[in-house]
Amino acid sequence: GLAAGAHARSANYIEAIGMDAAGVRLRNTVTGAEFSFEADIVVNTSGPWTDLTNTALGQTSTFMGGTKGSHIVLDNPELLAATGGREIFFEHKDGRIVLIYPLAGRVLVGTTDLEHDMTQPALCTEGEVDYFFDLVKHVFPDVAVNRSEIVFRFAGVRPLPRHDDEAPGFVSRDYRIESRPLGARPGTLLSLVGGKWTTFRALAEHLSGDILALLGRTRVVSTAGLPIGGGRNFPATDAAHRVWIAANGDEVGASRADELLTRYGTRAVDVIDFITAEPDAVLQHHADYSRREIEFLAATESVVHLTDLVLRRTSMAFRGELSLALLEELAGVLAPVLGWDSARGAAELDLAVDVLRDRHGVDLTTVDAASASRA
Ligand SMILES: Cc1cc2nc3c(=O)[nH]c(=O)nc-3n(C[C@H](O)[C@H](O)[C@H](O)COP(=O)(O)OP(=O)(O)OC[C@H]3O[C@@H](n4cnc5c(N)ncnc54)[C@H](O)[C@@H]3O)c2cc1C
Fold it and tell me: I need a surface site. Which of 45, 88, 200, 225 has the fewest CB within 10 A?
């Protein structure tokens, strides 16, 4: 069967579970295999789980005090039109900054700031949904929203520092780096406390600077200012965009090239190379994706579970585009690339159905029944 850790901690399959004289004990949560890894400096960047990880490493800490934030995604064309394409950030009645955000043809509504026990999964509750409907009403009193329009829910825990007196919504979003001896063997355990997506590069530079200092080395390469991923050479003007499409749309066509540029940035060049190397076909149950595109993601984006593909490598779940038939089709495309036999394929399908229902409020048995009755 699939390891429970894969449910508990998404998209990370090597877990630090202990520390002894041989080093940090690591476990592959898919295969269950365990091994030790020796290092002079161990860096704990496990986000809101940082204290749990330190405890597992034998260095109990109380650095973290993350708050849970939930979101819902609404398929409500009237609300989408009401936003006029604008991202609306505003102060709600409780003084918290909340958002109504048109995205990918849907409307994202969030968030909350609630204390959370990290040994439990973070879920978006009915009470939070009521809060979201209340804040939508606050801005758009004439637009009706209801629960049947929620296509996806998700919750995460912010990696905030412990806060004893401050109200959850007002805790500092700054970060710091804590240093401790490793304990079981000579060396240093660094813990990252806090941080945001918007600060990740500065933070990584700071953290790697601290590590270099501990190792007594000097930095030989700096990536400050280096564009990465799909942002590298991204065509930023209309003219540059036309040039890019003309240069890359020959084989797949201009509109498909444009779609892939939007989805992957300039990494679309690699996607186009891959999908045109062999015959391709549009997915039977999702007209915007092709089989070769899914194979590309499977081969290059560290996909381990079907849930990785639908929740994180694509926005299919986020947009409410999944069906049982699509999940089955995707599992069939992944199987030969990832070496799944039929039992593993079936287990992946079951896992995806469970995670979507239990974590994201998506019940695919009713989704399929509803689309069948509309058809
Ligand atoms: C509701 C919400 C809204 C947010 N809004 C914004 C925003 O608007 N702007 C912004 O910049 N940031 C925002 N953030 C913050 C941003 O998401 C986080 O700062 C960022 O994800 C932190 O990245 P990280 O890599 O440090 O931690 P994470 O992304 O949490 O990654 C930690 C990883 O460690 C893994 N892990 C846990 N335990 C172990 C172990 N024992 N061994 C190995 N691995 C382990 C976990 O599985 C996880 O993959 C928001 C967060 C939330 C929850």
Answer: 225
